[in-house]
Automatic annotation (TrEMBL), chains A, B:
<dbReference type="InterPro" id="IPR010368">
    <property type="entry name" value="Com_YlbF"/>
</dbReference>
<protein>
    <recommendedName>
        <fullName>UPF0342 protein B4U37_06285</fullName>
    </recommendedName>
</protein>
<comment type="similarity">
    <text>Belongs to the UPF0342 family.</text>
</comment>
<dbReference type="Pfam" id="PF06133">
    <property type="entry name" value="Com_YlbF"/>
</dbReference>
<dbReference type="InterPro" id="IPR023378">
    <property type="entry name" value="YheA/YmcA-like_dom_sf"/>
</dbReference>
Amino acid sequence: MANNVYDVAYNLETAVKESDEFKNLQTLYKEVFADETTKNMFENFRNIQLELQQKQMSGQEITQEEVEQAQKTVAVVQQNEAIAKLMEAEQRMSMMVSELNKIIMKPLEELYSDVDSAN
Amino acid sequence: MANNVYDVAYNLETAVKESDEFKNLQTLYKEVFADETTKNMFENFRNIQLELQQKQMSGQEITQEEVEQAQKTVAVVQQNEAIAKLMEAEQRMSMMVSELNKIIMKPLEELYSDVDSAN
Ligand SMILES: [Ca+2]
Ligand SMILES: [Ca+2]
């Protein structure tokens, strides 16, 4: 019997919530946001990152100066241990999420390539 | 006990494969690709669509002429019943996928908003 996709998706939501990756991220977020200075440092860094991403996505040119400025900010911010750990945890979480997506999207990918190679 | 996220993701992969949405899409793809003329019509349409998407994502301007050309192609292509049905099935599938993603990403969204509103 096929399980309903949404029921299984809710199971996956629960599994994500109970994963070490998520719990670790949660703990580190709380740590960073508990201290006003660390929080501001992190949010400042996050804003610079988002700005560059939006520029890139909209096809705007990113100047050499902006790249250097962003690199300096990363270097400074990573000297804060709580933030460095949080950034690592975010990377691990985002790797997990992209692997989960790859697994779930496999039927569709196979469908496209099967149909195409049969013709 | 927490389930391993990857085990649950594989369950979701199976559930997607066994869903009516997926099976319907599979049947309609085979139908469209079984006929050379219909297949070419569909692939031509798909290529125009992808080209416009890539232009948009890279921040290039899309001309009025290109929009009109794309609209004409959609109108022509949708007169083919097999293709029209396939396009509908793709839309239903993509709605399902985006709902699944929303469910799975909920813990992360809640994490960000909880941490932020607490400060
Ligand atoms: Ca082919
Ligand atoms: Ca806040």
